[in-house]
Design goal:
Elements (H helix, E strand, L loop, with lengths): L6 H4 L2 H6 L6 H5 L8 E3 L5 E5 L2 E3 L1 H13 L7 E4 L6 H12 L19 H4 L3 H7 L9 E4 L2 E8 L8 H5 L3 E6 L2 H18 L8 H9 L8 H14 L4 E5 H6 L1 H11 L6 H6 L1 H8 L2 H5 L2 H5 L27 H15 L8
Bound molecules: 3'-phosphate-adenosine-5'-diphosphate.
3'-phosphate-adenosine-5'-diphosphate binds next to helix 5, helix 9 and helix 16.
Length: 347
């Protein structure tokens, strides 16, 4: 397995991209960024509406470059998530699942998840492209029963996938979450990053909530993000597996077996008897990952912030500590009553 990116070369890129006068020519000119709808950003000063979705400048640069250069392979596994829906957890689960022969969970001492944050084990496509100015990123491969597989993640909506993703037989695993919990998680995360890497103050929760409900969150509107993958999973179930955070919480073993079957690597009888499913789930549980030294004290290789910001509470229903009844009703109505009506997507 190739090693993750070098922390010494990677940490400065987001800060550069936060300064409009430091943007590379291709970002300033290629899409005439000044003509795009613009709103105040969450972590970067501004976000831009590109083809219907709100992106920070570094996402946009990653999108432009990946559209030009990314070539999907049939064996690729692509993890797709809106922010704060459980990406870290899913990355750990998929990594442990696919590499279970290479890194058996019965021999934990040498498992890569003990020494590398899941976010760094599985690189994010648009962040990699935003960082690599001159050469295409070299995505690490893992051994899936003799086949070398690239596991890549992305926060981008289906509509902004590079063309080759649709043309190849690569598989997409999508994970989303009850948006009441997501907005709370997103708000906490944003405020931590604003302080840690942006030197900015906190956004008050009511302000963040209103922005979120208007769809002006990173990679939002969240409803279009979710519906794009939801519809594709119904039309093309062998291409897209649609998962919900709450369902993995409720029946983790059932959902892990679903992922294994979807990726054509189901658990054998022998593995079932040896408790491999439980081993993977224990290794990737919130408590287990949060208590690993690398996740307690390490730094994210892409952005340079503390790894522990990826592990806050890991609970279903924490929104009750932040949302008023009126806010909860508003968000439920946007989702259930308006946007998801007639689509079959429920929370
Ligand atoms: P990202 O968008 O920056 O990639 P992501 O991993 O999607 O972040 O979301 C983080 C959320 O997943 C946090 O939720 P919270 O704020 O409500 O607590 C985090 O705690 C939760 N999380 C991280 N790891 C796990 C895990 N192993 N099991 C369950 N939840 C987890």
């Amino acid at each position: 397995m190739a090693s993750p990116s070098d922390p010494n070369t990677s940490n400065s890129f987001p800060q550069n991209l936060f300064q409009e006068n430091c943007w590379p020519e291709e970002l300033r000119e290629a899409i005439i960024i000044s003509s795009l709808p613009r709103e105040e950003g969450w972590i970067s000063p501004h976000i831009y509406n590109y083809k219907g979705f709100w992106l920070a400048p570094h996402h946009l640069l990653g999108v432009l470059r990946s559209h030009q250069h990314f070539q999907a392979q049939n064996s690729d596994v692509i993890i797709c998530t809106p922010p704060k829906c459980g990406t870290t957890w899913l990355k750990a689960l998929i990594f442990a699942l696919i590499t279970r022969k290479q890194f058996p969970v019965s021999q934990l001492e040498t498992h890569p998840l003990l020494t590398t944050n899941p976010q760094d084990l599985i690189p994010n496509l648009e962040f990699c492209y935003a960082r690599e100015e001159n050469s295409p990123p070299d995505f690490p491969t893992v051994n899936n029963n003799g086949v070398m597989v690239r596991i890549i993640s992305r926060h981008l909506p289906l509509e902004l996938l590079p063309k080759s993703v649709g043309e190849s037989k690569c598989k997409l695993i999508y994970l989303c979450r009850d948006q009441k919990d997501t907005v709370v998680s997103f708000w906490h995360f944003t405020n931590k990053l604003r302080g840690e890497i942006g030197g900015m103050g906190e956004i008050p929760f009511p302000e963040a909530f209103d922005k979120y409900c208007r769809g002006e969150s990173l990679y939002g509107p969240f409803w279009d993000h979710m519906l794009g993958y939801w519809k594709e999973s119904l039309e093309n179930p062998r291409k897209v597996l649609f998962l919900k955070y709450e369902e993995i919480k409720e029946e983790p073993d059932v959902q892990l077996r679903r992922m294994a079957a979807f990726l054509n690597c189901p658990f054998s009888e022998e593995e079932e008897e040896c408790g491999v499913v439980g081993g993977i789930l224990r290794l990737c549980s919130f408590e287990s990952l949060r208590n690993m030294e690398i996740n307690k004290t390490g730094k994210d290789l892409t952005f340079g912030h503390s790894n522990h910001v990826y592990f806050r509470k890991g609970k279903v229903g924490d929104w009750r500590n932040h949302l008023t009844d009126e806010m909860a009703t508003k968000l439920d109505q946007i989702i259930v009553e308006e946007k998801f009506k007639g689509t079959g997507l429920k929370f």
